[in-house]
Amino acid sequence: MKHEMVAMILAGGQGTRLGKLTKETAKPAVPFGGKYRIIDFTLSNCANSNVLDVGVVTQYQPLELNEHIGNGASWGLSRRNSSAKILQPFSSQDGEKWFRGTANAIYQNISYIDSKNPDYVLILSGDHIYKMDYEAMLEYHKENEASLTVAVIDVPLEEASRFGIMETDTLGRVIQFHEKPEEPKGTLASMGVYIFDWPKLRELLVHDQATDRAMEDFGKNVIPAYIANGERVFAYGFEGYWKDVGTIESLWEANMEFLDLNHTLKIRDSHWPIYTKVTISPPQYITRNATVKHAMIGDGCYIDGLVEHSVISQDVKVGKNSTVSQSIVMTGASIGKDVQVEYAIIGESAQIADGSKVIGTPESIEVIGYHEIVGAKKYETK
């Protein structure tokens, strides 16, 4: 069955700014909010927006991400007339293998998109925390008879140099685009969410591949080319919570914001749920000696110390007289007795031995990597 729009989620980035947390896994697979992984938000947006054909383009350390997504069943994308497809690099006749950039990743997956025969292709990032109705954006795209629509959000001027910045006319048509300008003249930032007319984008990418192969990246190459060619490029204004969690500081900050019951993301809104792959764990157990203040505690946790203003994922152990404050503890981590954890991110299955201290500051979050051991010996809560 033909679907009007196919989504392509770019989830192959190495995520080097997350340091230890992406040493063994792709950035979109990094845990978030005690229960989710980062990519869950984009996948859930697709499901809730009735975008039923989703390709997930992976490359760097994809094993955990691939296992998490599976066939898309957790997001309702495995039913009849819907699909979630993992798309990884492969060797082709023209010598292509690794994706050279975002646009090149789409070029290398033309056969998948063609198999769906869409009118439009929705390009998404797999590492942003937000809720967005892509159907509403598509209607805006149609109303403006656009060749390309770029979702934008207003950002503080001091942060604008981190983003692609749009200049628009009074009708919302993009007249200038500056990719990460050193001295930004505006604050209208690209969210990395694009809707293209597929036949036109396909033609551009195929022609480029046959000539100078300059169209490697959407921000650096494709969008400027569209504007220079006089294509109808429009900015779609987004109002709401949106966070690029590409740094340790932004990931920690987004998790701390997630603790707010009045968070604008509205995680408890049943009309726009965030889905995830459910892992079965026993109920949490909080001992009579434990104290929990303003925290999220996942299933399977054993808490025998103080936990305050922290996000604790599934199957975490916190030993007697230990304190976890202003921190994120990811799935399966073990924290021993008499431990202090403050302003830190503890990676999956890490082990913090008795009497250890893992202490950062709001300006410098301490990070413990996946499976990393802190202290002289492994600890196991009894």
List keywords for this structure.
382 residues, alpha/beta, Spore Coat Polysaccharide Biosynthesis Protein SpsA, Chain A, UDP N-Acetylglucosamine Acyltransferase, domain 1, 2 domains, six-stranded parallel beta sheet, 8 helices, 20% helix, 27% strand
CATH architecture of the largest domain: Alpha-Beta Complex
Strand order of the largest sheet: 5-4-1-6-11-8-12
Q: Which geometry do the CA atoms define?
A: elongated
Structural category is: alpha/beta
**Overall mean confidence score, pLDDT:** 91
Radius of gyration using CA atoms only: 22 Å
Compute the separation of the termini in Å. 55 Å
Estimate what percentage of residues fall within beta strands: 25-35%
CATH class of the largest domain: Alpha Beta
Largest sheet: 7 strands, mixed
> How many domains comprise the coordinates?
2
CATH fold naming of the largest domain: Spore Coat Polysaccharide Biosynthesis Protein SpsA, Chain A
The helix fraction, in percent, is 10-25%
Strand segment tally = 29
Count of helix runs = 8
Low-confidence stretches are none
The CATH fourth-level homologous superfamily of the largest domain: Spore Coat Polysaccharide Biosynthesis Protein SpsA, Chain A
Pathway: Glycan biosynthesis; glycogen biosynthesis
Subunit structure: Homotetramer.
Family: Belongs to the bacterial/plant glucose-1-phosphate adenylyltransferase family.
Catalytic activity: alpha-D-glucose 1-phosphate + ATP + H(+) = ADP-alpha-D-glucose + diphosphate
